[in-house]
Structures are given as structure tokens and as C-alpha cells.
Amino acid sequence: MLKPMIWEDNVSQEFVDITIKYLEEDAPLGDIDYDPYVKTTDEKFRDDISTGYRDRNCGMKCKNRVWHFHEEKNDTERYISKTMYMLTLKSNNHFQYDLDYNNMIIQLARWDEGESYFHWHADGHINFEGVNRKLAFSLFLKPAAKGGKLLVNTINQFIETEDVSSPSVFVEEIKEEPGKVIAFPAYCNHCVTPVERGDRYSLVAWIFGPEWR
Fold it and tell me: Which of 28, 30, 123, 189 has the fewest CB atoms within 10 Å of its CB?
């Protein structure tokens, strides 16, 4: 039997509260504002292969704080990192990937209403390019009141349409609840729809590992 592509778990309300407080009051947030790219994900992937350069930029707008595991700036970031590290260990009982647990990047993000979004993209590819993002986590702190939906394509299909209701597009809309965390292979295409009402808070982590075999 095939394993589900998406693994789910939950963190404590205390973790959610501490992380939201840090995001709202203390985290040094920077702006991400990438122009939308005009190529399909299929064309972009082919360009990556032909040039040997993994271009991770795509249409995206939010505010965020990013840090590497073991390079935290304060106790709260160390607390968040430790929690994500433990979730990585737990989730990999399911995925059984060859991971470098110490090679992790964490992103804390605020998606403001009326302006934030993230177009279709994949965090990593199966193209034998050496060390790469292999496992992606999304932890929901505060869902938007409207919009801001995380959509995941679970069969590694190249998305060439914004009409996710199309029967040819195999997309799973993730139900967001405070404290819910999901993990999925980093080669899965996914997006965050425009945030229409109410800010959205999220925590993301990427775990790296040697090239796929």
C-alpha cells in the first residue's frame, strides 16, 4: 500500500501562543516581494535542469523571519527550532528519507490581508543535484479569515493553470487549524492563495538531505 504523501500532527497551544507572541512583538521581520514569473512550473523546471541553477524565486509576497538550525538569535527561536527538530524525527518514521537533521531552515511568516500570496512552486526537485530540500513542513499558527489557503499537489504534477477546480489538476486543500502541522515531500508543487481578509500566520521548515536515490 502506498503511504500518504502528507503527514499530519499537532503542537501544543502553548507553542502556538509563544510563537505568535514572538511574531507579533519581537521577531525582526523582513519583506519578501517576488515578481510573478511568467513561465509554467514545467518550463521553469526545464530551465533549472539546462542551466544547472535552481531558481527558487517565484511570485510571493509576505513578511518573514528566516534562520538556520543552530544559528538562532534568542531562546524563543531555539525553542521553535527544537520543536521542529522533534517533529522532523517523528515524521520521518513515516517518510523514511535520508535526511541531515541538523540541516534545517525555519521561516516564520506573516501574510497580510489584501496583499500576500505565494504562487505555485516546488521547494526541491528530484533531479540528482546533490544536497537539496527533501521534506517541507507547514505549521499553522493563525489561518486567514478568507483566502490564504495552502494547496498541495500530491502527485508531483506540473501545475499550468490557476483553476484548481479543473478535473485535470490533482490538488488537496489543506484545512488550516491553529497548531496543526503537516509535512510533505519537498518536490510536491504547492501554493498559498491570496489572503483576502484577516492576517495569516505560519511557520515553515525545510529539511535537507543528500541527493535522492
Answer: 28
